[in-house]
Task: inverse folding
DNA sequence: TTGTAAGCGTTATCAA
DNA sequence: TTGATAACGCTTACAA
């Protein structure tokens, strides 16, 4: 990190005060639109501000006010997958809508390496943000720990297992998975498998648990394969493996729509018809779902709302509200289309 | 924006100095690993740091050092589309790799509203970042202007028309478009259309210009439709319109792979075979390209490298290097598959 | 309504 | 090698 002090020095309140002939205190009051300033003073200050091209140094202001006006949105994903996850975009959107409305700047911090984690922790400690929203935290996430330790207002989107006492906003992955798997059973499928993913996250674990619950004694562990990522390739590989293990497989729960898309392409190549030979369901109701042929039955996540509520939760803590110890689970909705 | 000062007061250098019996100056030296400190002093300070649980207040440090150790990555997109663009992820990845290596924190600022723009401009002025990388700037982008005015080290990814004098890293959209369109001509297509998009950006404009150049006098303006976004829906709508205008159309250049995917689905529904009846090419070489049936011929963008170079450019300016007035265009590569 | 002055938590300068 | 002390640019009592 190097320094470049060749930039022209920026005007400060001192300059404005000098030029306008008004004291720094009053200049500050004018700048902040506070009452108890005469029109004369205000005008003189405003003229001086224009004259010297003054812009506020927020870093200095932060130092004294002890706040930054920024809130971190921490995304914990291998970078290239940030864009693959259809939910993150909508969560971002919901969060930003609320934060923007409250005049907070949302700053997104993306991290996938240990080095990134340490730097982000340092950044959070540095007073750059007044609060944090943490997406897709993993088990034992160091950033989650750092945030908890710092004690700044925070919320999780999702519900990391063994998480520190930070409130969360999530969906009931288990119930949703149970419900959509039940459909497979009800339509007479008897050899039902699952391509699971992301078992290091609550969402991955809970979807698997729901699948198992729905099948009850019909559950066959050898018909479950799992991979690290919610990705198209996961679905493709997983489906090939499942077909190998049980050529007569007739039902598949894919841990996400992207996974389902990969699985469907493999099924087609293997000469299986959907939903004729194999019924398949996904999770997310992302753009993948409607681009599949046939279109995918899946679970709709209220991603935008998740982002909104997490932001509201942080804002509430910022306003001195309590930090709830538990969390909130939002409703999901099963969308029935043609794949099962 | 509210304040919550009920947090426990954090220990400062004063506390460390008091507890260790060492002056603030020396404490600061120890903390920054500077030379000229005795082992005795160092140990005393380190013990005191642990005892009082001291962590540095970066805001205060920034005030005096005039730097933040953070660099903004500004993404100018309608939020939900951030995730649709296959390049952004890789650009992020490349940028972060370089910045992380140099120990800078990358903070991503996403904006789509005017309100967002103003807040981000304010944020940039606030001294929160030492430099900025601007993605997908539009014509007359207010943030680009703000950055230029601020005079902080900066670079564009892409080459906005009429951009302020900020260096850019981009690709030669025009040549690439010309090259891939030529393929359509060379394979004997005679009624060639284009589904253009994002004409408010350099990429959109240049791809259209390349298309026009490649066709020469064969160019037929009525076979060009254009839409605001590089999106699947753009391709679907655009293809329907093109078929309406010219049912015998036999070649299509889609402004991006997502657009091409939408167009291909419409072609299929309309009973046209690809590449038999219609040859089609895209742009990006994103995951869309290999999920199409048949797989898409397209242009590969060095997105990761774009991000890398933009970051290097900013770092170089930060180190006092010159701010070049022009830009750099990276090579693209045409990937021939089965769609044309 | 305004000016003065004391911080905010660091780093940096300069004697000692 | 160390300790005072003056910045950094701003807000905020408090006094006038």
Result:
């Amino acid at each position: 990190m190097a320094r470049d002090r060749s930039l022209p020095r920026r005007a400060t309140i001192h300059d404005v005060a000098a030029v306008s002939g008004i004291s720094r205190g009053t200049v500050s009051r004018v700048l902040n639109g506070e009452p108890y300033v005469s029109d004369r003073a205000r005008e003189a200050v405003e003229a001086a501000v224009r004259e010297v091209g003054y812009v506020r140094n927020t870093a200095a202001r932060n130092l004294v006010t002890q706040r930054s006006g920024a809130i971190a949105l921490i995304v914990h994903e291998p970078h290239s997958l940030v864009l693959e996850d259809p939910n993150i975009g909508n969560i971002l959107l919901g969060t930003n809508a609320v934060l923007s409305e409250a005049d907070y700047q949302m700053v997104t911090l993306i991290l996938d390496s240990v080095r990134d984690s340490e730097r982000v922790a340092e950044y959070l400690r540095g007073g750059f943000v007044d609060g944090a929203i943490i997406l897709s935290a993993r088990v034992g996430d160091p950033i989650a720990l750092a945030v908890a330790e710092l004690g700044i207002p925070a919320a999780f989107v999702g519900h990391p297992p063994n998480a520190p006492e930070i409130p969360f906003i999530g969906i009931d992955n288990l119930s949703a998975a149970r419900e959509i798997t039940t459909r497979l059973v009800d339509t007479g499928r008897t050899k039902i498998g699952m391509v699971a993913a992301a078992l290091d996250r609550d969402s991955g674990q809970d979807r698997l648990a729901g699948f198992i619950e729905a099948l009850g004694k019909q559950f066959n562990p050898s018909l479950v394969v799992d991979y690290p990522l919610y990705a198209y390739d996961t679905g493709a590989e997983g489906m090939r493996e499942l077909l190998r293990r049980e050529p007569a497989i007739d039902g598949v729960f894919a841990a996400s729509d992207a996974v389902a898309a990969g699985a469907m392409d493999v099924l087609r190549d293997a000469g299986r018809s959907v939903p004729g030979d194999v019924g398949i369901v996904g999770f997310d109701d992302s753009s993948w779902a409607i681009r599949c042929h046939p279109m995918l039955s899946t679970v709709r996540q209220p991603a935008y709302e998740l982002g909104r509520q997490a932001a509201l939760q942080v804002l509430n803590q910022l306003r001195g509200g309590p930090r709830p110890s538990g969390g909130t689970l939002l409703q999901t909705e099963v969308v029935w289309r043609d794949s099962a």
About this structure: The longest helix of chain B spans residues 86-101. Chain B has 14 helices and twelve strands. Residues 13-56 of chain B form a domain with the 434 Repressor (Amino-terminal Domain) fold (CATH 1.10.260.40). Residues 22-26, 29, 35-38, 41, 60, 62-66 of chain B lie near DNA strand D (CB under 10 Å from a C1').
